[in-house]
């Protein structure tokens, strides 16, 4: 083989390998980006009060809760429901679930069920522990961060399926 043919082949192989690395860097991983004990810091993910009444009640005071209005729930307070919020200006999703500190409820994988424009829906898988695993009986929050998949958008409500429930994340 002539040296110029070998040089061209080596160049093509180098370009192919470089392209493979560049293309794989464009897609965020489906696994968790980070997880940590506790809740997200409220200053980074402002509380969105979607349950309080927004109009005047019978007394005419704007923003007061009238009869039948839902009580506002602070998503930063511990509870047994999963909490999902946009994080890092919509570049990530933060999932917070309370449970045992020795066997924390940790998200492991996120996958798109319906892309933006067709439902904007994802599912998050959780770490499973062996049935004979001994866990403490405390109740503390644990947060898992995921990169926002490219197939979803922050300009539509996002529906997240986790723990057999559906959580709606409001528009960013």
Describe this structure as you would to a colleague.
The protein is an alpha+beta fold and 172 residues long. The chain folds into two domains: 1-27; 31-43 and 77-169, no CATH class. 13% of the residues lie in helices and 30% in strands. It has one helix at residues 3-25, and strands at residues 32-37, 83-87, 92-99, 107-114, 121-126, 140-147, 158-162, 165-169. It has a four-stranded antiparallel β-sheet with strand order 1-6-3-2, with no helix packed on it. It has a four-stranded mixed β-sheet with strand order 4-5-7-8, with no helix packed on it. The longest helix is centred in the N-terminal third of the chain and has 23 residues, at 3-25. The termini are far apart.
Overall domain count: 2
Order of H and E elements: HEEEEEEEE
Strand tally is 8
Strand order of the largest sheet: 1-6-3-2
Shape: elongated
Uncertain runs: 22-26, 49-73
Q: Count the helices. How many?
A: 1
Percentage beta strand: 25-35%
What is the helix fraction of residues, given as a range?
Answer: 10-25%
Radius of gyration: 23 Å
SSE class: alpha+beta
Mean pLDDT figure:
77
Q: Between the first and last Cα atoms, what is the distance in angstroms?
A: 59 Å
- How is the main sheet built? 4 strands, antiparallel
């Amino acid at each position: 083989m002539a040296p110029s043919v070998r040089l061209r082949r080596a160049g093509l192989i180098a370009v192919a390998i470089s392209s493979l690395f560049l293309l794989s860097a464009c897609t965020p991983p489906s696994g968790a980006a980070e997880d940590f004990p506790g809740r997200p810091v409220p200053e980074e993910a402002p509380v969105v009060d979607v349950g309080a009444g927004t109009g005047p009640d019978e007394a005419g005071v704007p923003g007061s809760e009238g009869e039948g209005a839902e009580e506002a729930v602070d998503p930063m307070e511990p509870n047994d429901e999963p909490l999902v919020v946009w994080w890092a200006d919509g570049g990530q999703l933060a999932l917070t679930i309370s449970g045992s500190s020795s066997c924390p409820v940790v998200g492991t994988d996120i996958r798109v069920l319906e892309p933006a424009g067709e439902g904007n829906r994802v599912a998050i898988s959780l770490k499973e522990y062996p049935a004979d695993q001994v866990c403490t009986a405390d109740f503390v929050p644990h947060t898992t961060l995921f990169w926002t998949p490219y197939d979803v958008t922050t300009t539509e409500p996002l529906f997240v399926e986790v723990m057999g429930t559906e959580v709606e994340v409001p528009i960013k």
